[in-house]
Amino acid sequence: MTKQDRAVRTRLALIRSAAAQFEARGYVRASLAEISAGAGVSSGALHFHFANKAAVAAAVEDAAARALRAAAVRSHGGDGCALQRLVDVTHHVARMLCADGVVRAGLRLNVEGVAGRVRDLRREWRECVQGLLAEAERRGELAAGVTPQRTGAVVLAATTGIEVLAREDQGWLARPSLTELWRLLLPCLAAPCLAGALDPAGSEAAGSEPAGSEPVAPDVAAEVVRTGLALR
């Protein structure tokens, strides 16, 4: 292994360790000593890569931003039904949040403005959702009277609510939970010509799911939307 390869691996290990510390202890309580120990490197090695804790947090946030943007770009790159791609990207992001502590920590740091918030990941997510809904409208996929603006507010509230609730219980990110949410929303959003053609479970293969998770009941889905709206 070359010196450059070792440096890349050390930096990645530090980012993963920092994400775990920020998620478990919060930014203020997490220490550089704990981050370096979690990565299995010395404090000197940490300071070779990062000047301070804020720089480590910014790196975690940047890594999360790249992953989330890649998901958004992917959702806009297909020729299929835009509404189905919207469903699919929400499932994809949920799987990322479930499996990747860096994405979870980076999103939370960004929302809390810890690293200076030079970017706004929730604004970027809003643009992704609204872009897909605008495409759906152009393709005639939305039901009569359904507009991208009003629909986008509901989808954003629901997905934001799920992300916040999942900080305490990752079962909210399980495929059955998000599937039930879309099963409730799609009949209200989709044009009649798409009845039965959309898959609320997503058209992609499922990733790993939290053990023992259950579908979200209608009253719980409403709680998700209320939680998201309260945070907007």
Mean pLDDT score: 85
Q: Which sequence of SSEs, written as H and E, runs from N to C? A: HHHHHHHHHH
Q: Based on helices, strands and strand pairing, what is the structural class?
A: mainly alpha
Radius of gyration, in Å, reads 19 Å
Amino-to-carboxy terminus distance: 47 Å
Provide the helix percentage: 55-70%
Oligomer: single chain
Total beta-strand segments: 0
Coarse morphology: elongated
The largest pleated sheet is described as:
none
Uncertain residue segments: 206-232
Please report the number of helical segments.
Answer: 10
As a percent range, the share of strand residues is under 5%
Briefly say what this structure is.
The chain has ten helices and no strands. By secondary structure, the protein is mostly helical. The chain is elongated, with a radius of gyration of 19 Å.
Account of the protein in words:
Helix content is 69%, strand content 0%. The chain is built from 10 helices and no strands. The chain has helices at 3-29, 32-39, 43-49, 53-76, 82-99, 101-112, 121-138, 148-165, 175-189, 218-231. The chain is elongated and about 60 Å long.
List the main descriptive attributes of the protein structure presented here.
mainly alpha, 232 residues, 10 helices
Layout of strands and helices, then pairs:
Elements: H1 3-29, H2 32-39, H3 43-49, H4 53-76, H5 82-99, H6 101-112, H7 121-138, H8 148-165, H9 175-189, H10 218-231
Helix pairs in contact: 1-2, 1-4, 1-6, 4-5, 4-6, 4-7, 5-6, 5-7, 5-9, 7-8, 8-10
